[in-house]
Amino acid sequence: MKNQNLGVIVARFQVPKLHEGHKYLLDFVTKKHFKTVVILGVPIREEADFKNPLPFEARRQMVLEEYPEVVVLPLKDNRSDTIWSIELDNLISQLLLPGQTAILYGGENSFTESYEGKFKTVKIPQITYISGTEIRNQIRKETDFNYSFRCGIIWKTTNSHPRVIPAVDIGIVNFENDQVLLARKYEEAQYRFVGGYAIPGLTYKQSAVKVLHKKVGNIDYFNLKLVGDFVIDDLGLKNSGNFITTSFFIVEYKSGLPDPGGNYYELKWFDIKEFELKNLIQEHHILFAQLASELATRKETGICGIK
C-alpha cells in the first residue's frame, strides 16, 4: 500500500532530459507515495547562466513529459538556508491535507545538507553517478542542433562570454548624526546599500540620481560624489562567470522622509560608529569599508569604527 503522506523531491534538473539518476529518484518516490510533488530550485537572479541554463517552465514540462501524475512547483533560492527552509516548509504546508505530513527526498550532495525545516528528509543512495555539468559541457560542444529546444537553450548559455554587469550603489549619509541609510529586501534578513543597475543611455552619476529617486523617494540631498569602483561577487551570480562592477557614490542627506521603492521593503538609518558588519550582506562589506575611509578622511578622525 502506498504511503498517504506527501512525497516531495527537491532538485534542479538542469539537463535537456531526465537521466537515469533522476528517473531512479522519481521512480522511488512515485512508487512509494500516493502523491508526489517535485520542487525545482530557481536561481535568485532568473537569468540563464552555465549552472542554471533552463528556466523553470522548460524543466517543469520535461518532468511532466515522463511523469504526468506529479505536481511540479518552483522555489526561489535564498542566501539564507534558514529563510529558504521556511519558504520550502510554507510551500509544502499549503499542499497538505488535514493530518497529513510530508517526507522530503534528495540524492547525495543535495538540499538535505542545508535544509533546516520541520519535515523529515531522506537521502536516496545513488546507483549511478551522472554529472549534469558534464552533460552541459557536452551539449556546449555540439554542432548538431537536432536536439530539443532545451538543448538549444543550454548551448546558447554555455557558449556565452562572461558578462560584466554595470551597477551603482549609494551611501546616503546624514553628517549631523553620523548615520547611513541602508535598505532591505523583503526576503532578506540583512541590509545593503541603496543601489541598482546602471541605466542604458545614462552616465553612472545620472543612473545614481535615477536610482535614488526610484528607491528612496523625494529626499533632499547634495554633493553626490563618486568615491570608487568595485567588483562585486554577487551571490546571485555565483559560479556563473559573470560579475557586477559597481560605481560607489556618497551623497549628503539634507531632509525628507525616505520611502522604500523598487524591490526594497525597508529603509533604515544606522549609526556608523556602532554598525556591525554581520547586518550587511557580504558583497557590500567592501563598500562599507570605503564609506568609513571616506568619512574618516573628510572629518580627519576615525569616527567610523567598524565592528
Describe this structure in words.
It is elongated and about 75 Å long. Helix 4 crosses helix 5. With 307 residues, it is α/β, with parallel strands linked by helices. Helix 1 links the parallel strand 1 (6-11) and strand 2. Helices cover 27% and strands 26% of the residues. Strands 6, 7, 8, 9, 10 and 11 form a 6-stranded mixed beta sheet that branches. The chain has a 5-stranded parallel beta sheet with strand order 3-2-1-4-5, with helices on both faces. It contains 7 helices and 11 strands. It starts with 5 loop residues before the first strand and ends in an 8-residue tail after the last helix. The protein folds into 2 domains: 6-158, Rossmann fold (3-Layer(aba) Sandwich); 164-299, Nucleoside Triphosphate Pyrophosphohydrolase (Alpha-Beta Complex).
Q: Give the overall silhouette.
A: elongated
User: What is the number of helical segments per DSSP (H or I, 4+ residues)?
Assistant: 7
CATH H level of the largest domain: which superfamily? Answer: HUPs
Distance between the termini: 58 Å
* Oligomer class: single chain
Helix content: 25-40%
Tell me the number of structural domains: 2
Please give the number of β-strands.
11
Poorly predicted runs of 5 or more residues: 301-307
> How big a fraction of the residues is strand?
25-35%
Helix-strand category: alpha/beta
CATH class (first level) name of the largest domain: Alpha Beta
SSE string:
EHEHEHEEHHEEEHEEEH
Radius of gyration: 23 Å
The biggest sheet amounts to:
6 strands, mixed
Compute the average pLDDT: 88
Question: Remind me, CATH topology of the largest domain?
Answer: Rossmann fold
Tell me the CATH architecture of the largest domain: 3-Layer(aba) Sandwich
